[in-house]
TrEMBL record:
TM ranges: 6-27, 39-56
Gene Ontology annotations for the cellular component aspect, listed alphabetically: mitochondrion
Protein known as: NADH:ubiquinone oxidoreductase complex assembly factor 2
GO biological process, one term: mitochondrial respiratory chain complex I assembly
Amino acid sequence: LLSIFLIFRVFWALFPHIALFPLIPILESLIFLSARWQGSLILIAAVLIVFCRGYLKHLVHSEILKNEIYREEIKLKIKDASEKDSLLQTKESERLVAEPVQTKIKGHASSPSYGKNEPSPDPTSTAKTFHPGSWIPPDSSSHNK
């Protein structure tokens, strides 16, 4: 605080025409800047002089605070996105894990065919053979109605 007081005295000597009431936010920003820049008098005095001459519209501390708030918001958004992504990954991994299914066993393992070869109603063909489809008559019970 002593360094801020010295800077404030130098500022008052350079700019005596500025009223005391508007200097309260400047004093707050000086306290912030001294904590931020660890009491570097040259940097704080330079920022203050540049601000008072009108080259800066806002004091640097407000820009720094805006940037810090923006960084915190981005960190929160990244954290939320990573949590959502991890939840989606766990759901996808649960879908990919196959549950055990009860298999139906037909015939014997040593037999070449398992069950009867029932003719298909649709024609089928392979490279050299053609199996015509079989016609299955409709049920007689539905025909009589």
